[in-house]
Design a protein that fits this description.
Layout lengths: L1 H10 L4 H10 L2 H19 L2 E4 L1 E6 L25 H14 L3 E6 L7 H14 L4 E5 L5 H10 L3 E3 L7 H7 L6 H14 L2 E8 L6 H14 L3 E6 L16 H14 L9 H6 L3 H8 L3 E2 L29 H10 L3 E3 L9
Parallel strand pairs: 1-8, 1-9, 2-3, 3-4, 4-5, 5-6, 6-7
Helix pairs in contact: 2-9, 3-10, 4-5, 5-6, 6-8, 10-12
Length: about 350
């Protein structure tokens, strides 16, 4: 396995068979070697600094019915909400005072946020905070929508492809959604001028090591500036309620591989990692991640954006817990940065 890790570091890509072998057969010793290499590469571009993003979960309404997601349209138990423009601006104001220089607006695919409404919100944030980056994570939109959001002042867009394999994608989503269209949206985002983020679940129902290898090869084709991955975590009110959740170990392995493939990109230590293990976030950083995304959403809605069971939204996961998060990063040799944190160029 060490030869494959060295080859990956040197060439930045392996074949599908080689990726599959590495994912299936990496030993604990192999993983530690991989993580030592991934930390070294992350340090080359980012030192021991960790970027912070202020996450604003603007709506848990969604028109889609993805089988794994707690805010899916068919979940009648979800307590729905959406933030007003003024509430979103208020979150940004609080975040700016706390030191955030990137705001991430994330939500379900909610038709309330028309192109006009979103463009107006983006423009207001851009005017109020010209030194900040604006990131959107609002799902699949039209090519024209993406261009309009970019022209209004948004800089980045996060759209996880979830799985690059069409058959596996159909096993996770209703028939009106397709992997091909999801991928097309990512290329539209690149054409519009966005810094693009994609990613996938680890351990989703039916997933194999070969599926993960295909995910890595698709990301190589895409050439993103950000990749967000996290373990699949089941939600009690979805069709996948009885499936086993993905593992932290497999997720960390994939973070390490991604850092070797893309030494200069932004990789978050996700909320899902922090949910499945008390030190999941730190372990993510030590595997090669370099971004954390504390929650800036209003306190009364944080527990309503429940994509999966037991999703954390307080403590170091909350914007108010920034000092505690800083301390925890310092304990593993890192520190938080007050910076918009763009992807470094190779």
């Amino acid at each position: 396995m060490r030869q494959l890790i060295d080859k990956l570091k040197a060439n930045r890509v392996l074949s599908e068979d080689e990726f599959t072998e590495l994912i299936e057969k990496a030993s604990e010793e192999d993983r530690e070697y991989l993580f030592s290499q991934s930390r070294e590469l992350a340090g080359k571009y980012y030192g021991n600094g960790i970027y912070t993003r202020g996450l604003i979960e603007i709506s848990n309404y969604c028109k889609n019915d993805c089988y794994y997601c707690g805010i899916r349209k068919s979940n009648e138990k979800a307590s729905r909400y959406r933030l007003t423009e003024e509430e979103i601006l208020s979150c940004c104001e609080v975040g700016y005072e706390l030191g955030f220089r990137t705001f991430v607006m994330q939500g379900g695919e909610d038709g309330y946020y028309t192109d006009d409404r979103m463009a107006h919100i983006i423009s207001r944030i851009r005017s109020a905070y010209p030194d900040c980056a604006i990131t959107l994570s609002l799902g699949e939109r039209s090519k024209e929508s993406y261009q309009r959001f970019f022209d209004a002042g948004a800089n980045r867009y996060l759209l996880r492809h979830e799985t690059a394999d069409e058959a596996h994608y159909k096993a996770l989503h209703p028939q009106n959604l397709s992997a091909a269209h999801r991928k097309q949206c990512l290329f539209w985002l690149k054409e519009a001028g966005f810094q693009v983020g994609s990613g996938f679940m680890v351990g989703s129902p039916g997933q194999t090591a070969r599926h993960l290898a295909k995910d890595l090869l698709f990301l190589k084709e895409l050439g993103p500036q950000m990749v967000g991955i996290g373990p699949f975590i089941r939600h009690q009110d979805t069709p996948f309620a009885k499936y086993e959740s993905g593992s932290m170990e497999q997720t960390l392995l994939m973070i390490g591989i991604l850092r070797l493939m893309f030494p200069n990109i932004l990789i978050p230590a996700t909320t899902a990692l922090g949910t499945i293990h008390p030190f999941g976030r730190e372990k993510g950083v030590l595997a090669g991640a370099n971004v954390v995304m504390p929650n800036l959403s209003p306190l009364d809605v944080r527990k309503k954006y429940m994509l999966y069971d037991n999703k954390i939204s307080s403590g170091v996961e909350a914007a108010e817990g920034l000092a505690d998060l800083e301390q925890r990063m310092e304990e593993i040799g890192y520190h938080l940065l007050v910076d918009r944190g763009d992807c470094k160029k190779e």
